[in-house]
């Protein structure tokens, strides 16, 4: 599967994460802190880096900043814990592509790594020798299937890669934001699920029959007549991505607020956390059934003091 550099100063957590990753077929090189992890990257380029945030020598935030500066195409996933929320917010703003709470390593680490790997493969699938996609614009209409999220998001990444806009890491982050918006539109917008509905977390974690239950729900009245609309426009100065749905539910989830301790632990908050971290601007319509996400092509990642 993927080659992973794992940075974690706790031997217990390092062994746990390494065993989880290796159980999914990944090749793992462990490092005790960010500096050692950076040395591992320099020795042999991995497919991605998974890092804790609080470490000696070089913490996870400093590692993310260095990787973005030196290896802008290398994706990084950060592992969050209570008390490290500020570092996590800064790491996501700087260039990390996703986060996994330590309390949910067993269920969320490998899915996050798999999605990152697939998105990265989509980005790399386009070769510059094939030409350049000039000012692409397209409209993608999706049914209410969670299985449609990854293919649609990967299509966006491939289009951005063909357009030659931004670094690979930025394109991956946009793909993550798109996937999050699509998930919210399907579950909260069209299927009208409530935040506390256990099927949401269970579907994400692939527990039980939750995904099948949501698939069957989507095929009943009135949900089967509702669609999600994905529109992408890549201009010279920015990329604008609209995600809208036909149902009455709201795409935005602002309680608890993104960046708070609770927002890193509740799955219904993940989408807005990633969207607000990865995109430069969000524009909602009046009833929150559409969001336009804007990414400036000239925007540079700023250092976090």
Automatic annotation (TrEMBL):
Pfam families xrefs: HATPase_c_2, Response_reg
Protein name listed in UniProt: Luminescence regulatory protein LuxO
Organism superkingdom: Bacteria
Flavoprotein in keyword set: no
PANTHER family reported in the protein's UniProt record: RESPONSE REGULATORY DOMAIN-CONTAINING PROTEIN (PTHR44591:SF3), STRESS RESPONSE REGULATOR PROTEIN 1 (PTHR44591)
Response regulatory domain: residues covered: 3-117
Alphabetical UniProt keywords: Phosphoprotein
UniProt xrefs under Gene3D superfamilies: 3.40.50.2300
SMART domains: REC
Species this chain originates from: Novipirellula aureliae
Any one GO biological process: phosphorelay signal transduction system
Residues recorded as bearing 4-aspartylphosphate in the entry: 52
